[in-house]
Amino acid sequence: MSDSIVIIPTYNEKENIEKIIRKVFSLPESFHVLVVDDGSPDGTGAIVRRLQSEFGGRLFLEERTGKSGLGTAYIHGFRWCITRSYRYVFEMDADFSHNPDDLVRLREACMAGADMAIGSRYIKGVNVVNWPMSRVLMSYFASGYVRLITGIPIRDATAGFVCYRREVLETIPLEQIRFVGYAFQIEMKFTAIKYGFNVVEIPIIFTDRTEGVSKMSTRIFQEAFFGVIQMKVNSWFRKYK
Hints:
This is Dolichol-phosphate mannosyltransferase. InterPro entries: DPM1-like (IPR039528), Glyco_trans_2-like (IPR001173), Nucleotide-diphossugar_trans (IPR029044). The protein is an alpha/beta fold. The protein has one domain: Alpha-Beta Complex (Spore Coat Polysaccharide Biosynthesis Protein SpsA, Chain A). About 40% of the residues lie in helices and about 15% in strands. The protein has 8 helices and 9 strands. The strands form 2 sheets. A 7-stranded mixed sheet has the order 3-2-1-4-7-5-8, sandwiched between helices. A two-stranded parallel ribbon has the order 6-9. Strand 1, helix 1 and strand 2 form a beta-alpha-beta unit. Helix 7 packs parallel to helix 8.
């Protein structure tokens, strides 16, 4: 039985899902994988079901109807994991923008005392490959904006490559996490820090997807931009125990 599970949310990831699953299972440390698929019309779920016969007891699939957003997919996965005996719960994209080899480093950081370990693009300069400069600048300055508004000392606030100790997910009231796009990542980091958890950043190299289609949109960016202000204001009226 592994004490670590990687949640991979998917929507139309048929080009990547089998490769990323096989890569995770090839690592020297033992990880389980939970795919949360939002009814992908391209057959992503069917690929995972086929692989379950090969990786019995290590690969799990939760299928939802309709595309409901990144945040709700992760919260669905968190709740699934909390009811089981996993000690370390990971977020990771399906498209290899996050290097699965770094799962081991994030886990080691939590084993060494971190409550939440973030795979960070901006600890040692800007470690991003294959992004246009416009997107690099948008992401980099977005994290600066988050630090300015919220006061949290996180260099990569929108990062989606994360390891949580289960105590973090048991403490944060997941039903109160309101954002569904990339602002979800900001809200989880902000809330973990407000609850007093030890949040650290581990430098990684982020490589943009080479297959499949990006899920970034203007609406998602706007949610993050305006949502940060609302999140900070709401925190003034909320008690963190």
